[in-house]
Design a protein that fits this description.
- The structure is a single chain.
- By secondary structure, the protein is of the alpha/beta class.
- The chain contains five helices and eight strands; from the N terminus they run E-H-E-H-E-H-E-H-E-E-H-E-E.
- An eight-stranded mixed β-sheet has the order 3-2-1-4-5-6-7-8, sandwiched between helices.
- Strand 1, helix 1 and strand 2 form a beta-alpha-beta unit.
Length: 198
């Protein structure tokens, strides 16, 4: 079990999905987390993301690293920059697992392409405005188009995001323990967590 928590996980995105997943992984015991994100904490982020009023105006990765350390002693490395196909290789190639929790098509596409190129396992998290979420491994994932309205900014999506973070944490643990790659869809309407139909 100790080796499980020494795995190096790169989390792409420190917003509603990535931020909550990072907090969940850190509190679970994972010690080698790297989080990359270009955004700063805004007032509107406080509804769904693991930040506080005193974090507003700071880079998300800096605030998340500090809050994780105060909560669990986890020293997550924060990278405050935009990840692209041009600069992402140096971060992705050293990871045991990459988590894509970005909220934009271009960033998600870059992560997917780089992980395919470097043969690094990658798990994608996403939620929609329709109380639906998914946790999908790279080989089964299609990059969705950008939405007009980001569901992660809506107050109703907090429960779904936390649900997705919890499911993802269990999938990550099983992957490292047993080598299993499970794909899941999540719906709040019926509280279902189902295998992804291929």
């Amino acid at each position: 079990m100790n080796n499980l928590f020494e795995k190096k996980i790169l989390i792409c995105g420190a917003g509603t999905l990535g931020g909550n997943l990072a907090e969940n992984l850190g509190r679970t015991g994972f010690k080698k987390l790297i989080v990359i994100d270009q955004d700063i904490v805004e007032e509107k982020n406080l509804v769904n993301q693991p930040y506080f009023r005193f974090d507003v105006g700071q880079p998300k990765v800096k605030a998340l690293s500090r809050n994780l350390f105060q909560a669990s002693g986890t020293e997550a490395a924060g990278v405050h920059q935009t990840l692209t196909e041009g600069n992402g290789e140096k971060w992705i190639q050293s990871a045991d697992l990459v988590i894509d929790a970005f909220d934009r098509h271009a960033a998600r596409k870059a992560v997917k392409s780089l992980c395919e190129k470097l043969n690094i396992p990658c798990l994608h998290l996403g939620i929609s405005p329709y109380q639906y979420g998914e946790v999908i491994w790279n080989e089964f994932y299609s990059v969705p188009p950008d939405l007009e309205e980001d569901p992660c900014e809506q107050t109703f999506s907090r429960s779904l995001a936390l649900f997705a973070a919890a499911v993802s944490t269990e999938i990550i643990k099983r992957y490292f323990q047993q080598g299993e790659k499970e794909n899941r869809t999540i719906t709040l309407k019926d509280f279902a967590v189902l295998p992804l139909l291929k």
